[in-house]
C-alpha cells in the first residue's frame, strides 16, 4: 500500500510541476504572439526572453510524466494508451508544430510573424486538450465493449464538464503566465510591458475563478463520486479561494517594497502557485484510489516492487545530479540582471 | 489496410523521421566540441566560426528532433500499449534515466546557446561536453530498450505472468554494450560525414584559396579524419553485432544472409534477392566460407539456416538488402577518406577536383541512409516479435481501429516540418554568410553566438 501511495504522490508532483511550467510556457508563447505588433512596449521581447531558453526544459517534463506513468503504473499506461490514442495524437501533432515553429521563429527573423502565429495558436490549444485527460479518467467517457476499452468521443465532446475543464485550462494558462511575465518584466525594468501584463492578469484572474466554479458545478452531475469527495475537503477549497484574494492584493495594491509602483507581482505568483497546489491536492486526494474510475486503481495498476525500488533510486540520484544544473540555469536566465535587461 | 499494418507503418515512419535528427543531434555536438578544442590548441579563429555555425544548425535541428522524439516516446504507449506495459514492469530504467540525460542536454544546450557570451570559456566548453554527454546517453539508453527487445533478460515468464523481476539485470541485458556501442559510433559517423558533405558542397562553390574556401577546407579535413576513424570502429563493432545475432537471434542473421540450409563453411552472400518459394538466394555474389568465419571466427562454425525455423517466425526476407546496404555504405565510408588522403599526401595534389568534391558531398546522405537501413533491418528483422520469443507485435498493438486518418495527419506534419527545417537552415545561412561570422569572430566586442541576423 505505502509504495503505491508514494508512487502516485511522485506522479502527482510531476503533473503539478509540469502544469505550472507548461502554463508559463504555452502562455508566454501566446502573449509573444498577441503583442507582436506593439514594438514599443517590448511585451513580446520579454515573453521571448523567458521562452527561448526554457521551452526545451519544459518539454522534457512532459516526457518525464509519460515515462513516470508507465514505469510506476504499467497497467494504467496500458489503459490510458488505448483510450487516449486520438486526443494524445492530436496533442502530439500540435506540440510538434508548436515547438518547431517556436524555434524557427527565433532563427528566421524575417518570417517571425507568421511563424509566431503558428506556434502561438497551436500552443494555446494544447493545454485545453491536455486537461481533457482529467475528465476522461473520471470514467464516464470510456466504453468497455467486446473487452476493449474505447473512448466515446461523441459523449466526450457533448459534456459541459469537459468544456469547463478546457476553458479553465486555457484561462489559467493565460492568467498564470501573465502573472509570471509581469514579475519577469518588472525585474527586467520594462515598465511598459509590466503594465500590459498586470492588466491582463487583472482581467483573466476572475475569469479563471469562474471557470473553476463551473468545473465544480458541472462535476456535481457528471462525476458525483468525485464531487462529494472533494467537498469533504471544503475547508481546503476555501483556503484556496482565499489565496485568490491574495493574488488580487498583489495585482491591485500599491507596492509596499517600491514607492510609486502599482502591484506586487511576485506576491501574486507565489499566491497563485499555492492556490493551484491546494486545489490540485484536493482534486488528487478525492480521485484516489482510482486512476481511471472505476476499473483501474493505484493498487491494481502498480508496477513490480523490485522495479519500483530501482526507479525510485534513480529518481533520488537523478535529482541530486540535476539539482545544481537547475540552480545554475535559474541563476543565468531568471536571476541575471544582465540577461534580463539586455536590449533586443 | 489492416490496423496492425498501419500501426507498424505509422511507428516506423515516426522513427525513421526522428532518427535523422536524433542521430545528427548525437553526432554534431562531438564535431562542435572537436572544433572548440582545435581552436584551444591552434588559436585559429576559423574553428570558432565553425563551432558557432554548427551550433546554430544544431539548435534548428533540435527544434525538430525534440518534438519528433516526444512523439516517438508517447506513441510507444499509444500504439503498443501491450509492449509498454511489459517495459514499464520489467525494463523501466533506461527510459527513466534517459529523462535525466534529456534534462542535462536541454539545460546545458540552452546555456551554451543563450548564455555563451556571458560565461567563461572553460564553462562554455564544459557546457558543450555536457551537451555531448547528454545526447550520447540518450541514444545509448533508448538503444538499450531496443537491445532488450532482441535479448530480453531479468525476469521469468510463465503462464503469461512476469515473475522474479530484476530491473538491473534487464538493463544490463546481453546485447546492451554491443548495440549501444554500434549506435553511438554510427551516430558519430553520421555527424562527421554530414558536416563533411556541407563543407565539400561549399568548397565546390568558392574559388580555391579564398578565405571561405579555406574555412571549409579545414572543416573538411577535421571531419574526414573523425569520420574515417569512427567508420572503422563502427565496422569492427558491427562485426561483433553480427556475432551476437548468430548467438541470440540466429533467424535474423539467416534472413540477413539469405541462408536456408544449416551448415558449416557457410558462404557470405552479397547482393541478390532472397526467394521465399525456391528457398534460395538469386543473383548474389557468394564468398565461400566467409559467413561461418564472420559468425564465429572459424570456418567450422555452424550457421543455422532459416529451414530450422517455422516459416511463420521468419523475419521478412528483404532485410538481406538492407543489411547489404548498411555494410556496403559502411565500407565505402572507410575508403573515401583514405582516398582523399592518398590523393593529397601520396600523389601530392593540393587541390580538390570537382568529381572528388561531388563524391564527398554524397557521404553525408549515404551515412544517414546507412542509419535508416540499419534500423529498419534491426526492427523489421525482429518480426514477428516485439520482444524476442516473449511477446508478439500483434499482441502488443493497440485495439483501436481506424488509424489511417492519424497516419495521414502525422505524415503531413512530418512533411511540413521537413520542408520548414530545410528552408529555415537555407535562410539562416544565406543571411549569415561565413564572412559575416569571420568578421564577428575577429572583432572582440561583437557577440558571435547570440548573433542571428
Ligand atoms: C552509419 C551507420 C552504420 C554503418 C556504417 C554500419 N551500421 Fe550496422 N547498424 C547501424 C548503423 C550502421 C544502426 C542504425 O545504428 C543499427 C540499427 C540497430 C542498431 O543497433 O544499430 C545497426 C545494426 C546492425 C546490426 C544488427 C543489430 C541487431 O539487429 O540487433 C548488425 C549485425 C550490424 N549493424 C552490422 C554492421 C556491419 C558489419 C557494418 C560494417 C561496416 C555496419 N553495421 C555498418
Ligand atoms: C531509431 C531508429 C528506428 C527506426 C528507423 C525504427 C524503425 C522501425 C520500423 C520500420 C518498425 C516497423 C517494423 C515492422 O513492423 O516491420 C519498427 C517497429 C518497432 N520499433 Fe523500431 N525503429 C527504430 C528504433 C527503435 C528503438 C530504439 C526502439 C526501442 C525503444 C524501437 C522499438 C520498436 C517497437 C516497439 C516497434 C513496434 C513493434 C514491432 O514492429 O516490432 N525502435 N521500428
Ligand atoms: C537510437 C535511436 C535514437 C537516438 C539516437 C535518439 C536520440 C535523441 C536525441 C539526441 C534527442 C534530443 C534530446 C534533447 O535534446 O533533449 C532525442 C529526443 C527524444 N527522443 Fe530520441 N533517439 C532515438 C530513438 C528514440 C526512440 C525509439 C524514442 C521513443 C521511445 C525516443 C524518444 C525521444 C524523446 C521523447 C525525445 C525528446 C526529449 C525531450 O523532450 O527533450 N527516441 N532523441
UniProtKB/TrEMBL annotation, chain A:
GO terms for cellular component: plasma membrane. Signal peptide: none annotated. It comes from Robertmurraya kyonggiensis. Keywords: Cell membrane, Membrane, Transmembrane, Transmembrane helix. Belongs to the cytochrome ubiquinol oxidase subunit 2 family. It is found in: Cell membrane. The keyword Membrane applies. It is a multi-pass membrane protein. It holds the Pfam family Cyt_bd_oxida_II. This is Cytochrome bd-I ubiquinol oxidase subunit 2 apoprotein. The chain crosses the membrane at residues 6-36, 57-77, 83-103, 115-136, 162-182, 203-219, 234-257, 269-292, 312-333.
TrEMBL record, chain B:
The keyword Heme applies. It is found in: Cell membrane. The chain crosses the membrane at residues 15-37, 58-79, 99-116, 128-148, 176-201, 222-239, 317-343, 355-378, 406-429. One of its GO terms (biological process) is aerobic electron transport chain. Keywords: Cell membrane, Electron transport, Heme, Iron, Membrane, Metal-binding, Transmembrane, Transmembrane helix, Transport. Its main location: membrane. GO terms for molecular function: electron transfer activity; heme binding; metal ion binding; oxidoreductase activity, acting on diphenols and related substances as donors, oxygen as acceptor. It is a multi-pass membrane protein. One of its GO terms (cellular component) is cytochrome complex. The keyword Transport applies. Belongs to the cytochrome ubiquinol oxidase subunit 1 family. This is Cytochrome ubiquinol oxidase subunit I.
Amino acid at each position: 500500500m505505502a509504495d503505491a501511495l508514494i508512487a502516485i504522490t511522485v506522479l502527482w508532483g510531476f503533473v503539478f510541476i509540469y502544469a505550472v511550467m507548461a502554463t508559463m510556457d504555452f502562455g508566454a508563447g501566446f502573449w509573444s504572439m498577441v503583442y507582436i505588433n506593439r514594438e514599443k512596449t517590448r511585451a513580446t521581447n520579454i515573453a521571448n526572453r523567458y521562452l527561448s531558453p526554457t521551452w526545451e526544459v519544459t518539454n522534457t517534463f512532459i516526457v518525464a510524466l509519460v515515462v513516470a506513468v508507465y514505469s510506476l503504473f504499467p497497467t494504467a499506461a496500458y489503459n490510458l494508451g488505448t483510450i487516449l490514442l486520438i486526443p494524445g495524437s492530436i496533442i502530439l501533432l500540435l506540440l510538434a508544430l508548436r515547438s518547431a515553429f517556436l524555434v524557427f521563429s527565433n532563427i528566421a527573423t524575417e518570417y517571425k510573424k507568421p511563424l509566431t502565429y503558428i506556434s502561438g495558436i497551436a500552443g494555446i490549444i494544447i493545454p485545453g486538450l491536455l486537461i481533457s485527460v482529467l475528465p476522461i479518467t473520471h470514467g464516464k467517457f470510456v466504453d468497455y465493449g467486446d473487452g476493449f476499452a474505447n473512448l466515446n468521443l461523441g459523449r466526450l465532446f457533448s459534456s459541459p464538464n469537459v468544456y469547463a475543464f478546457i476553458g479553465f485550462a486555457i484561462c489559467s494558462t493565460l492568467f498564470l503566465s501573465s502573472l509570471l511575465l509581469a514579475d519577469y518584466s518588472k525585474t527586467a525594468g520594462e515598465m511598459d510591458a509590466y503594465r500590459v501584463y498586470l492588466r491582463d492578469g487583472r482581467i483573466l484572474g476572475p475569469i479563471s475563478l469562474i471557470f473553476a466554479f463551473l468545473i465544480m458545478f458541472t462535476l456535481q452531475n457528471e462525476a458525483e463520486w468525485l464531487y462529494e469527495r472533494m467537498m469533504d475537503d471544503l475547508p481546503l477549497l476555501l483556503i484556496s479561494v482565499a489565496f485568490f484574494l491574495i493574488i488580487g492584493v498583489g495585482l491591485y495594491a500599491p507596492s509596499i517594497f517600491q514607492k510609486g509602483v502599482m502591484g506586487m507581482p511576485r506576491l501574486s505568483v507565489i499566491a497563485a502557485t499555492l492556490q493551484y497546489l491546494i486545489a490540485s491536492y484536493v482534486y488528487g486526494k478525492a480521485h484516489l484510489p482510482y486512476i481511471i474510475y472505476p476499473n483501474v486503481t493505484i493498487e491494481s495498476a502498480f508496477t513490480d516492487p523490485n522495479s519500483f525500488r530501482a526507479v525510485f533510486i534513480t529518481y533520488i540520484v537523478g535529482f541530486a545530479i540535476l539539482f545544481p544544473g537547475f540552480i545554475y540555469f535559474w541563476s543565468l536566465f531568471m536571476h541575471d540582471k544582465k540577461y534580463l535587461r539586455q536590449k533586443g | 489496410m489492416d490496423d496492425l499494418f498501419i500501426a507498424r507503418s505509422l511507428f516506423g515512419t515516426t522513427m525513421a523521421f526522428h532518427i535523422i535528427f536524433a542521430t545528427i543531434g548525437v553526432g554534431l555536438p562531438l564535431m562542435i566540441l572537436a572544433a572548440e578544442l582545435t581552436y584551444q590548441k591552434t588559436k585559429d579563429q576559423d574553428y570558432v566560426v565553425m563551432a558557432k555555425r554548427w551550433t546554430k544548425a544544431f539548435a534548428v535541428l533540435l527544434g525538430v528532433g525534440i518534438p519528433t522524439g516526444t512523439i516517438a516516446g508517447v506513441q510507444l504507449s499509444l500504439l503498443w500499449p501491450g509492449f509498454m506495459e511489459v517495459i514499464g514492469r520489467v525494463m523501466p530504467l533506461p527510459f527513466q534515466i534517459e529523462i535525466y540525460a534529456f534534462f542535462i542536454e536541454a539545460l546545458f544546450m540552452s546555456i551554451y546557446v543563450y548564455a555563451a557570451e556571458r560565461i567563461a570559456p572553460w564553462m562554455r566548453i564544459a557546457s558543450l561536453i555536457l551537451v555531448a554527454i547528454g545526447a550520447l546517453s540518450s541514444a545509448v539508453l533508448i538503444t538499450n530498450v531496443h537491445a532488450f527487445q532482441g535479448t530480453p533478460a531479468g525476469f521469468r515468464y510463465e503462464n503469461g505472468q512476469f515473475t522474479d523481476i530484476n530491473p538491473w539485470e534487464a538493463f544490463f541485458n546481453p546485447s546492451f554494450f554491443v548495440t549501444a556501442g554500434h549506435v553511438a559510433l554510427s551516430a558519430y559517423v553520421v555527424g562527421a560525414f554530414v558536416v563533411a558533405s556541407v563543407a565539400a558542397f561549399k568548397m565546390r562553390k568558392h574559388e580555391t584559396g579564398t578565405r571561405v574556401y579555406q574555412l571549409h577546407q579545414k572543416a573538411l579535413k577535421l571531419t574526414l579524419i573523425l569520420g574515417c576513424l569512427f567508420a572503422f570502429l563502427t565496422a569492427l563493432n558491427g562485426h561483433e553485432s553480427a556475432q551476437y545475432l548468430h548467438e541470440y537471434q540466429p533467424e535474423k542473421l539467416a534472413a540477413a544472409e539469405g541462408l536456408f540450409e544449416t551448415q558449416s563453411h557457410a558462404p557470405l552472400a552479397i547482393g541478390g534477392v532472397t526467394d521465399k518459394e525456391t528457398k534460395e538466394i538469386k543473383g548474389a555474389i557468394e564468398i565461400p566460407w566467409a559467413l561461418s568465419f564472420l559468425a564465429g571466427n572459424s570456418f567450422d562454425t555452424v550457421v543455422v539456416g532459416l529451414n530450422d525455423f517455422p516459416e511463420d517466425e521468419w523475419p521478412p526476407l528483404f532485410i538481406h538488402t538492407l543489411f547489404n546496404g548498411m555494410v556496403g555504405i559502411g565500407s565505402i565510408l572507410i575508403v573515401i577518406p583514405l582516398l582523399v588522403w592518398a590523393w593529397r599526401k601520396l600523389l601530392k595534389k593540393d587541390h580538390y577536383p570537382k568529381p572528388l568534391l561531388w563524391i564527398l558531398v554524397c557521404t553525408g546522405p549515404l551515412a544517414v541512409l546507412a542509419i535508416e537501413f540499419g534500423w529498419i533491418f534491426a526492427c523489421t528483422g525482429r518480426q514477428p516479435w516485439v520482444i524476442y520469443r516473449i511477446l508478439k507485435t500483434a499482441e502488443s498493438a493497440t485495439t483501436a481501429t481506424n488509424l489511417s486518418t492519424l497516419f495521414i495527419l502525422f505524415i503531413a506534419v512530418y512533411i511540413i516540418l521537413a520542408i520548414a527545417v530545410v528552408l529555415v537552415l537555407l535562410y539562416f545561412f544565406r543571411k549569415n554568410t561565413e564572412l559575416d561570422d569571420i568578421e564577428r569572430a575577429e572583432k572582440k566586442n561583437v557577440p558571435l553566438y547570440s548573433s542571428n541576423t
